Amino acid sequence: MKFSVLIAIVPEDQEQECIDAARELGAGGITVISGRGISNTAKKTFFGFTYDGSQSVLLMVLEKSLSLQVLKAIQHLLMPAENDSQGLVFTLPLEHLGGIDMSQFQKFEQNLKDNL
């Protein structure tokens, strides 16, 4: 079984929606890190102050085929009209992995069997 790490950088107000979408597809543990993004164009607000907004970084270790499904679901939430993206989501392959909960491993295994 091959694994990927999925990293999603999402606006804080869309954090729970993205977590729920990942969980519906079978993601187990999700690490959430708070962050602050700086875009290439400053966003003007009241009295000329700039505000880029708070962001959340979601980290998930997923079975490779499941990671693509979760990526597409989160991408759909971040780009509903396929215009301007509200965040970024990508995967990286994992070569070595230790410490994964066996119940999660069994869920991944069952998901693979169900999709065959």
Structure explained in plain terms:
The chain is of the alpha+beta class and 116 residues long. 34% of the residues lie in helices and 28% in strands. The protein is built from 3 helices and 4 strands; from the N terminus they run E-H-E-E-H-E-H. It has helices spanning 15-25, 64-78, 102-115; strands spanning 3-11, 31-36, 54-63, 88-94. Strands 2-3-1-4 form a 4-stranded antiparallel sheet, with helices on one face. The protein is elongated. The two termini are 14 Å apart.
What are the SSEs and their pairings?
Elements: E1 3-11, H1 15-25, E2 31-36, E3 54-63, H2 64-78, E4 88-94, H3 102-115
Antiparallel strand pairs: 1-3, 1-4, 2-3
Helix pairs in contact: 1-2
